[in-house]
Write a structure and sequence with these properties.
about 350 residues, alpha+beta, Endonuclease, Chain A, 3-stranded antiparallel sheet, about 15% strand, disordered N terminus, DUF559 domain-containing protein
Length: about 350
């Protein structure tokens, strides 16, 4: 004789003991949890609780930081994610818990302060301390900010970096989204400074992200960017000094201006080898809405020096941070090649 054995109470005990503690209403239904059972489990003082609309955590007490992140992602993707249905034995992991499933490409990406915390920033709040968790979704998604989930719409999701298995916006984009919600100049400056000083990204990528987000019209952001560019240049100069010392390059003259005798100023260089007519320029330029006109000027300066027989090696802070030995090889090659060139024009080398 065949009996229709009800799915409860076994599924409740089964999923409560599983490794996935955050599930959507659709996933719970797939486990056989009826709406009435769900309401009972989530009653005041009950064993489960609702974190966000349609998203539940299967234990009492405060959720962990990771559970809050997973709840925000579940809320943001609940219309697009495919529930993990434990219908096939081989679809289950250890202990019979269903393996997570969903879209191959994320439909939501953690950004803002939460993303920066995941990237290892120390000047951001801990995950449990965040009042809001920002999440990027496609512009056409019909979602609203609710609870601790703040929905940020974007025309195109950034390619995420996966941190602890979660899709997280790259540092420059996460910074821009965080700065957009910070009115305090000090907090903005601390974030941008840590981004550069901590080696998370270079100033140019930060400024590009802030420009794309149209944040450079805010005075406190502009002030912080000016400090950021100064910070980035100082760090890059120290790396240039270290490159010369560690890789045995000849000592240059540092921070000089070049001028034709009795003629115009030719421009400044961060390092210059007069006997080789080779100079190094650290390029910390970044696209700024009010600086587009400077790009042709920098190009003309370099072309003028090269017409005079002076080789200019352009190094960016990112290259000095990520490939110091390779940049030393580039400079050494330029120094060695100077022996095969015609003599350069005579120029005055003045301290800058």
């Amino acid at each position: 004789m065949t009996h229709n054995t009800p799915l409860s109470p076994r599924p409740l005990h089964h999923i409560s003991d599983g490794s996935r503690r955050v599930l959507t209403a659709a996933e719970l239904r797939a486990h056989g949890v009826a709406p009435a059972q769900l309401a009972t489990q989530c009653r005041p003082g009950g064993p489960w609780q609702q974190l966000l609309p349609g998203v539940y955590v299967l234990h009492p007490g405060p959720p962990t930081g990771e559970e809050r992140l997973r709840a925000v992602l579940a809320y943001a993707t609940r219309e697009t994610a495919v529930p993990a249905v434990p219908s096939q034995p081989d679809a289950e992991g250890a202990g019979g818990a269903p393996r997570p499933s969903g879209p191959a490409c994320p439909d939501a990406v953690i950004t803002g302060l939460a993303a920066l915390t995941l990237h290892g920033f120390t000047t951001t709040p801990t995950l449990p301390a965040l009042d809001r968790i920002d999440v990027l979704v496609p512009r056409l998604r019909r979602l609203r900010t609710t609870g601790f989930a703040r929905i940020l719409r974007t025309a195109a999701l950034p390619t995420p970096q996966h941190v602890t298995g979660l899709p997280v916006a790259p540092v420059p984009r996460a910074l821009a989204d965080a700065v957009a919600g910070l009115p305090d100049a000090g907090a903005v400056r601390r974030l941008l400074t840590e981004a550069v000083r901590g080696g998370h990204c270079d100033p140019a990528s930060v400024v590009r992200a802030l420009t794309d987000a149209k944040l450079l019209g805010r005075p406190h952001v502009v002030d912080a960017v000016d400090s950021l560019l100064a910070e980035g240049r100082t760090i890059a100069e120290h790396r240039l000094y270290r490159m010369v010392r560690e890789f045995g390059l000849p000592d240059p003259v540092w921070n000089v201006d070049l001028r034709l005798p009795g003629g115009p100023h030719l421009g400044g260089l961060d390092a210059y080898w007069p006997e080789h007519a080779v100079g190094v320029e650290i390029d910390t330029r970044a696209p700024r809405q009010d600086e587009d006109a400077l790009w042709p000027e920098h190009a003309r300066k370099r072309e003028h020096l090269e017409r005079l027989g002076i080789t200019v090696v352009r190094l960016t802070p990112r290259k000095l941070r990520e490939a110091l030995e390779q940049q030393a090889t580039v400079v050494r090659t330029a120094l060695m090649a100077s022996a095969d060139r015609d003599p350069a024009a005579y120029v005055l080398v003045l301290p800058r």
